[in-house]
Amino acid sequence: MCGIVGYVGSKKATPVLINGLLSLEYRGYDSAGIAVIENNELSVLKDKGRVANLKQMPEIENLNSSIGIAHTRWATHGKPSRENSHPHLDNSKQFAVVHNGIIENYHELREFLTSKGYSFLSQTDTEVIPNLIHYYYTNGISDEDKFLRAVKSAVDDLKGSYAIEVISKLYPDRVIVVRKDSPLVIGTTKEENFIASDIPAILPYTKDFYLLDDYEYAVIYKDHIKFFDNTLSSRSKAIKNIEWDATAAEKNGFEDYMLKEIYEQPNSIRETIGSRFKLGEKCSFDDINLSKEYLQSINKIYIVACGTAMHAGLIGKNAIEKLCHIPTEVDIASEFRYRNPIIDDKTFCIYISQSGETADTIAALKLAKSKGAKTLAVSNVIGSSITREADYTIYTHAGPEIAVASTKAYTSQIVLLVIFAIYLTENLGRSDVATTESLKADILDLPTKLESVLAETEQIQKFADKIYTEHDMYFLGRGCDYNVAMEGSLKLKEISYIHSEAYAAGELKHGPIALIENGVTVIGILTNPDLVEKSISNLQEVVSRGAKTLIITNQKLSNSNFNYIINIPEINPLVSPILSVVPLQLFAYYIAKNKGLDVDKPRNLAKSVTVE
Ligand code: F6R
Q: Which pLDDT tens digit goes with each residue over 76-86?
């Protein structure tokens, strides 16, 4: 889970590399480095710490090269230190490599190289790669395409996941890249080419991209690119035009990406809805052609994802079961892939991943495919790995999500899953028109209603100001309100480092209520009219044990024992999580801000979890 950037063109490479790294810092930020080819030698600058440290190194000004590679790290092998930072060189200092991923057999490779006289300066798995390239380069590779062949021989030895960039002082006009299970895109223009782990890093320069496939090699010059398959046969590749606007990936006057992304939700939801339905017409997904016979044969749906995306899946399950009457299970991808789930050709599997690069989710998808199930990816990133593995893909179109804590992707995932549930029920012939039409009207109302929730921000901020020094908090709800409680609790933990738990309100008295004592904060989510009275009784139990309570509700509460009440608009319970989660996102945000924390880059986390 690191970020890599590369440039080859005519202008100075370092500003492009540094700017690219800055926008990839969400992928990791414990060390950063660059390598360029300067006067036919490799110059490397790197150290632990953020990209800002690298940017301030005085030597950086003296690098005038127009070819280079760069890296921002999230440590897996070896602590953050200068030695462990990328780029890594081979012993002869002829090859420089940056790598995102994990080389699982690096011990073996290190022993092999050590037996051949190579030594290592770092504890990383990556350092074997430049040395392997050097080994093959100097041992029996024919002269034709010698650099590429040496890289390919080295890569053939690697087990694990990788996106790799290589430059060599012997070939100062090109960057070689290859990937497997780690993302890598190439942005292209007539005079210069850009490489990055993710599209936003190079959006300011171009909207034309090549999306590299697994085991595919690209040799990138300033004015052309050659692509090769895994046997080094050359292949042609189509350019993909990416519509995202570069300014959409900037902060636009907000203090942090997270706040900007929370505020973008009315708009991101409009984009997600797009033209997928109109009132009075059936929902359509252009890219999906599932026959009615196939749909009728489905006897089980799995929704598989990690973290926040999994929480969105829980809301999706509710919609699918209510509207389509198909039993639906939600699974954590890292569990699903190892628990031997019961899957056959009547199982339909939905995989949700904002980034589309989450290793566990991709592995879980491959597993279901291998057992004959049809797979659908729900992703935000066009051309991401998961979309290339799945039989079908539907995009959330929420725009780039940069903050590590997911907000707008979550609400867009829910909207899309609910629309997909309507599409399923309509195509199964099981829909009740009055129900689906009224739900559609409510979905279309979401952006406006969300705007009114955002107008209450100040109230949430006030509550956060009062309680940000606390150490434990509890979130309660029933049904989908419980699922939202889980998401609110995760948001709070990950950015404020406050311990919190979410409980199904009815479960409280089976144990957790022992934790409630005077002054503890409990947040209740009460939006489902059928369940509100029951949840109120559970909240009463914590009030009478001295808890402070914040209630998010769309109901008129007769009881006013609660300390703070945030009122949100009423809406169909299938989509009310989209409104009720927003105060919880803001709550976590303001608590973290009060604590002086970096909300966009919380400790120990990375945006895209491309390792197991
Ligand atoms: C939490 C968060 C994570 C992600 C999870 C899956 O705010 O962002 O829990 O939801 O790592 O990521 P994707 O959706 O990219 O597969």
A: 788 889 999 99
